[in-house]
Amino acid sequence: MFNMILRVTENPVRRTPARDVAIIAVFAAITAALGLLPAIYLPVSPVPITAQTFGVILAGAVVGGRRAGASQLLFLALVALGLPLLAGGRGGIGVFVSPTVGFLVAFPIVAGLIGWATERVGAPYRLLPGLVVNTAFGIGVMYLFGWVGMMATTHLAPWAAIVALAPFLIGDALKVVIATLTAKGVHASYPGLLPSRTAPAVADPA
Amino acid sequence: MRASSLGLFRPGHSPLHRLRPGTKLLILLVLGAASVVTQHWWWAVAILILGSMLAYRVAGWGVRLWWLQLRPLWMLLAFTAVVHALTSGWQRSVADTGTIVVLVACAALVTLTTPTTALVDTVVRLAAPLSRFGLDPERVGLFLMVGIRCVPLVAGLAQQVREAQIARRATTSTRAFVVPLVVRSLREADALGEALVARGIDD
Amino acid sequence: MRIELERVSHTFGDGPTPRTVLRDVTLTLTERRIGVIGHNGSGKSTFLRLLNALIVPTSGRVLVDGLDTARDARELRRRIGFLFTDPDAQIIMPTVSEDIAFGLRRSGLSHEQVDARVRDLLVRFGLDAHAGHPAHLLSGGQKQLLALAAVLITEPLALVMDEPTTLLDLRNAAMIGRVVADLDQTVILATHHLDLLAGFDRVLVFHEGRVVADAAPAAAIASYRDLMDGER
User: What is the CATH classification number for the domain harbouring C79?
Assistant: First the structure.
């Protein structure tokens, strides 16, 4: 075995606007597909865990801020147009006046922020920074929006809105961990999505 | 994936089906603005709830479909109603919970009575004035169409990945499912991007 | 149509593992039916993508009727249509007729003109019963017909096809073969279904990035078989 010092090439994959359109559309569809996975019920909470917000975190952690944000914006637009893409087959503009609207509004923002931070950290994707970024935005920012949205629609007191949201937290903590591991796996099998760190050397054990 | 009808639209010939999508969206907008005022009188909200049920009748359906739109929210609605009833009285409870019911039911009705492509056309038309700010409405339409197209594409990939997993008796962990799904989707995006270029989208 | 490749080489990736897929290819093509055969990874697909300016070569020039693919990509794609192996990747719009019409979005034609052209193609390819259906629900053979119709709507002068029958069963492959044979356009077709090349004017055999045989179908296919036997 010899350790070769090599520079990982910057953006080896060709970038065209058309390819970005395709990636944005495909990630909107991935968030939709994840909502189709059967919901998991934990014994401690009546709120099911769906994989939907998983898609939001994953988009950010995989394709970078601009494309991730755009993909989730497109996802919301498709939902608004009446495609039954939200977990449980919901869709239509009705969901934008329902109590969970805050979370939906957060989708593109959270995906964009995670993508932005992930690009700052750069390639190769590492678990610990990934976990920190995904938790800070995927739970922190997501719940901030969800909480405000809940109060705005239901006029519940802040404490009551927290009680209503708390059950979701268990599942979301779980999702952040799985999403981070998944992102790592995706970057390993499809390199070139992230800009390489400016640090000059990357050891390659090959 | 409900492959037969991509969307929640239900065909029909009611006056609500014939109304232009833009008009329906406008009515919804007015209703949303009005709710800020009506929220102060529980009886006004009660009348609106009855009105929304009536609208489902006019569209050719019954209260059952009305309830189907609200069912996914019932737990949150019940929670809201109880907390308001205990902290600020039943009138407030009816007004606040009822407003959500009215808006969700009416918004769902727009979706149920309008084909997806008609809504896309409306969005592209409504986005026209935005071209002054550098937003190309045609581009918005393209994004929506390619997005609509990708839903069954990725759903099909998800099906294939699932089948491959079962055939290989692999684990059923989420990660073992999502990693290949995302990687194959990215490959598909490369092919789709190439097709877009070949078919004249390179700007 | 006159296609010229002048000392064309192409290498993918400038990183630690560059892959050279075409090596110093010089060719002039003027025939109406040109076949391209070779193993997976022989450089066929890259060669085809050069013709439609989907790829610009890392060295050398590709000229189509005098237009340089490196400079006049857009004009070139108007003249040359491209049919991919997987029709699923090529279908862009949700329904059959919308997808066929897609290529004319910015053509300046009126709604009626576009509709008339779409109807003609739907009838010609026997897809008229599916006009309003979701495109992804068609069968494999129908999807490839749809993809072909979607390319033909812009009335290109030539069609480049990258293994359009590889994902199809024999019956559908033969059907696509007949449709291709009837086209008025110049056709450059890469395929593993060698019987599709009967009646072609010229067949190129690619191997490890070079053209190793360039002849009439029978002779070219024979040398392709020799190539395989030699490797055994």
Answer: 3.40.50.300
Helical pair A158-189 and A52-63, crossing angle rounded to 10 deg: 50
Output the DSSP codes for C100-157: HHGGGTTS---HHHHHHHHHHHHHHTT-GGGTTSBGGGS-HHHHHHHHHHHHHTT--S
| Least CB–CB distance from B76: residue in A37, A97, A164 | A164
Q: Which domain holds residue C163?
A: 3-90+159-231
Show which subunits contact C, needing at least 3 CB pairs below 8 angstroms.
A, B
What's the structural domain count of chain A?
Answer: 1
| Chain B interface, best mutation among A14, A27, A74, A97, by max B CB count within 10 A | A97
Q: Number of residue pairs across B and C with CB atoms under 8 Å? A: 68
How many structural domains comprise chain C?
A: 1
- Report how far residue C85's alpha carbon sits from residue C90's, in angstroms, rounded to the nearest whole number: 9
pLDDT in tens, B117-130: 788 888 888 888 87
How much is the pTM? 0.79
The CATH number given to whatever domain includes residue A182 is 1.10.1760.20
Contact with chain C for residue A204, Cβ under 8 A: yes
Residue A86 lies in a domain: yes
- Looking at chain A, how many residues does it have? 206
Mean of the pLDDT values across residues B99-111?
A: 85
* Residue B120 touches partner C, C-beta closer than 8 Å: no
C212 near B CB under 8 A? no
**What range defines the domain where residue A171 resides?**
23-189
> Is residue A4 included in any domain, yes or no?
no
Q: Is any Cβ of chain A less than 8 angstroms from the Cβ of C231?
A: no
